[in-house]
Design a protein that fits this description.
Helix content: 10-25%
Radius of gyration: 15 Å
Number of helices: 2
Distance between the termini: 5 Å
Oligomer: single chain
Largest sheet: 14 strands, mixed
Number of strands: 14
């Protein structure tokens, strides 16, 4: 079982762009940050810090383009800033709503999956592109308070809910701009 421990932060923008930042403190690949970017035309881009990371992630999820690039990250107590390949993102979030303990995988695949679907429109369990089972065990969720992004100097607009699915994999990020701490288990 591959276990990734960290944070996923996601938001849409008024231009129709959707951004998902995976900021992983611990993983079988070490500590790393990547960006999944769905453009308004439906194309999906992975920005990854190395070939090794890009290969692993692109086997799990769907992308039309994979770019290996230097990604600089600045973390704050309630925020993150990312720069890579012409994309600059700055996101801040509010107080977390904590979930008191880690739940077993069977609970995530059944009860938690139901509540995740009803409350946030997400799936907490599913099958990846390459046929591996994956579970998202969320420990806390925070609402995004502010977000800005620019690509090659051009503003992507104000933060907005995900109105169009990003279609990276079996689950979509919450439609509400959010930042979650979690463990991702990949069989």
């Amino acid at each position: 079982m591959d276990v990734f421990v960290g944070r996923i932060t996601s938001t849409g923008f008024s231009t129709g762009d959707r951004i998902v930042i995976g900021d992983w403190r611990e993983s079988p690949l070490g500590s790393f940050t990547n960006v999944m970017w769905a453009k308004p035309d439906g194309s999906r881009i992975l920005l990854s810090p190395s070939e090794r990371h890009a290969e692993y992630v692109s086997k799990l999820y769907n992308f039309e383009e994979v770019k290996v690039t230097e990604i600089t990250v600045q973390r704050r107590k309630r925020g993150i800033s990312i720069n890579g390949d012409g994309l600059a993102i700055k996101i801040g979030w509010g107080m977390p709503f904590p979930l008191p303990f880690w739940r077993p995988l069977w609970f995530i695949a059944s009860f938690e999956a139901l509540f995740g679907r009803i409350l946030f429109g997400t799936r907490t369990h599913g099958v990846t592109k390459n046929g591996r089972r994956e579970w998202y065990s969320v420990r806390s969720i925070s609402r995004i308070l502010n977000a800005e992004a620019r690509f090659e100097g051009e503003d992507l607009g104000s933060k907005s809910e995900f109105e169009i699915d990003a279609c990276f994999g079996f689950s979509e990020p919450p439609s509400m701009p959010a930042s979650v701490t979690l463990k991702s288990y990949i069989e």
